[in-house]
Amino acid sequence: MNARALDGSRLLKWYPPRWRGRYGEEMVALMEDVLDGQAPSRRLRLSLVWAGLRERGHEAGLLGKTAPAVERARAGSLLVLCAWSVFMVAGISFAKITEHFGQVVPARNLALPNGSFDTVYVVAIVGGLLVVCGACVALPAFLRFLRDGGWPSIRAHVLRAAVSTVVFIGAGAALLGLADTLSPAQRNGGLLYHPVVWYYLLAVIATALLAALALGLWTVAAVVITGRLALGQPVLSVEAALAVGLSVAMFLMTAATAVWWGAIASSAPWFLQGIRPRQGVSAFSPTLLETIALMLVACAIAGFGVIRVARSWRDLRLA
Amino acid sequence: MAHDRNGLRRPNDPPLLILTSLAESPKHGHALAKDIEAFAGVVLGPGALYGAITRLEERGLIEPLGAEDRRRPYRLTAAGSAALAEAVRDMRKIADVGTARLELATGGLA
Lengths: 319, 110
Prior knowledge:
The complex is a heterodimer.
Chain A: H1 8-11, H2 17-35, H3 42-59, H4 69-97, H5 101-104, H6 111-147, H7 151-180, H8 184-187, H9 195-228, H10 233-267, H11 269-273, H12 286-318
Helix pairs in contact in A: 4-9, 4-10, 4-12, 6-10, 7-9, 10-12
Chain B: H1 14-22, H2 29-40, H3 46-58, E1 62-64, E2 74-76, H4 78-106
């Protein structure tokens, strides 16, 4: 291999474009000197992937202290917003799992499951309102951005998210139409020998995936848009405070979900298996476990974002 | 070697090594890597080296000179010299205390 033939653009593709523009050539020159005509090893390639991702983290204000406080606060807040999107997917799953539990659990044991479920429900509404508040606070800056001709730079992201939403709504309407033709037992996954039940289950999974896709694309659009807005220190302070509140909401809901599981496990474990009441039924539910695991992932992401916000808070107030 | 056989870490922070290397003279990436390996026994990969160079330049501790055939040398700034001097003073303080206590305990260094 010729030393001059090192494919720098491929090796450095994990680095942010702005970084590549500034340091790319000299780094490729360094690698040519070091490698002296040898092909880059797998270890070197992996180290470049890691270093490139770290550089992206620095550029996004997610790592290090070199980015200005406003950028670090913005990055931390946006990370919490991403965590909220992940949490919403888990929330939808929890809503599906808990459907009709009040009709199955004996009335004398309902207080704790009801209390924990209501906690999740109320805190979810509060969390949603916090997100809406965050959007409202950033709205004037967004309108200024549009007036200044910013639309072309975000159009593709917004259109992708809008199209995915329309597809999801169409699929949801079709799913409702299909559900109307089924009996309650078929809708709950019973009578699996009937082909239409399989179609219904596939449609439910496909619609859930479309919902997650739409949610993800709107989140990406929100991150891209917010990253381009000129947000002043007061606005970012409010966004940071809302991000902290949203994170607390996620932690509360995760704890309440775990309490709900514990309460159902002790009073009506058969509900988690979708069977009639009887003794000796396991309270283990893979779906619920996955749901809580997803919630914990969201909490971890939110926690990282909040730490980022908190560390930039003092600098932000001094700015 | 970055670590000795007892697992005690020697000062191998890439920014500190780069500043130390540039205290001698301006150098480009490959010359920096070779010099650091020679005086500290630390092999810095391209990713770690340029990650540290990026941070140091952002903090104004080093600055680039004109490129020579795609190889761009860097030199210390005044702020970089001051930062290195402070770091070296801190390390010397630890080294002096360690040396003095070892001499007290063993009656002299081997």
